[in-house]
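User: Hi! I'm working on a homework problem where we have to compare a predicted structure to a textbook description. Could you give me the structure for the chain below?
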Amino acid sequence: MSLALLLATRFRRFKNVSGYLSFISRSSTVGIALGCAILIILLSVMNGFHKALEDDLLAIVPHVEFEAVSGSLKDWRTVVELAEQHEQVIAAAPVIRLTAMVQQQRRFHGVDIRAIEPELESRVSRVQDFASSSDWQDFYNDPDSILLGAGLAATLGLEKGDGLLLLVPQLGHETNANRAPQRLWVTYAGNFSFGGELDYRQAYMHLSKAQQLTGSIDGANAVRLRISDVYAAPHIAAELGYQLEEYAYMHDWTRTEGHLYRDIQLVRTVMYIVLVLVLAVASFNIVATLMMQVEEKRAAIAILKTMGASDGLILRTFVWQGALNGIPGALVGAGLGWLLALRLPTILAWWEQLHGSALLASDIYFVNRIPVHVLWQDVVLVTLVALLMSLVATLYPAYRASQLAPAESLRQA
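Assistant: Happy to help. Predicted structure tokens:
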């Protein structure tokens, strides 16, 4: 093997190698390096969106939720106890979901209200992490207060301590257009800033206040669950749902927000396909380079064979010669891609500052930046695929070189 590597190195340094052949050889190395670097960066961005989905979106969206088919749950405490007996359920908490109109002076805006028990809610979501400590504390201490999304609060032009009028349809009479909505005064305690549409359409109020509206003392129309394995949410929802002694809708995040996860997985799958195709195209240059080198080295191959070189030695020599193009390209590309992926947030921040506009609008997307999460598994996978493709590309030219007849090669040289 050491002799084959030595011969491959000498062939690469041979002075009679044409400039065109040298250019093709270098371009194959550059192509593999660029392919590896770009794909590592793209996969790291996809990993970043995947991690943002888990850490940010699912921090406020319930993993699993059981909602009463009509009215309130008969006994939400029983549902909580049943759910928390499951080994993968971290915590459960009651909630009353309402749709209302917010009126502030002459401004009206529709809002989805989640009536929660702040102490219990902190076990199943991290809504408090998206509000300032003072806003959350004011909301926590005042049962007559409401916490609005930052976008909705800005639209209404609210200041802390302002009074708000909620217009809530009377439950059980939604289809009666002549029935006047219930009116409820609340105090604006502050806002939460999550990002995306939720900042413009969601609000939180105290469970006790919503119970007054619904006329259900100590009632709740849904129970929210936080689970350890978010990707097992459909299975856990079905498993627990069939154990309930009352009719309830079974919701999980894959139904409400699953399109985001599916989009990320689809793009990630496309990236893996592109990985193979891009590296395959780059490897074609190795095939072309080696085929031309085989023709150029006919005389050298014939001399080696007349000196006793075996077909296997010639084959290994040209495999090594192709590998000397692929290995540096894969390693340099992996290192470059890893470094650029780590620096990508800084580069994009500079680009946004230069152009004065954000790449992701905070009022549309649940993240206002391009997230990046570099996984060593992706770096290793891209590098191994690049090495494998470059190795496969050497086999046919190396085989052709090993089958050359010495006498015929010397006659044609």
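For your comparison, note the following. DSSP finds 15 helices and nine strands in the chain. The radius of gyration is 32 Å. Good luck with the assignment!
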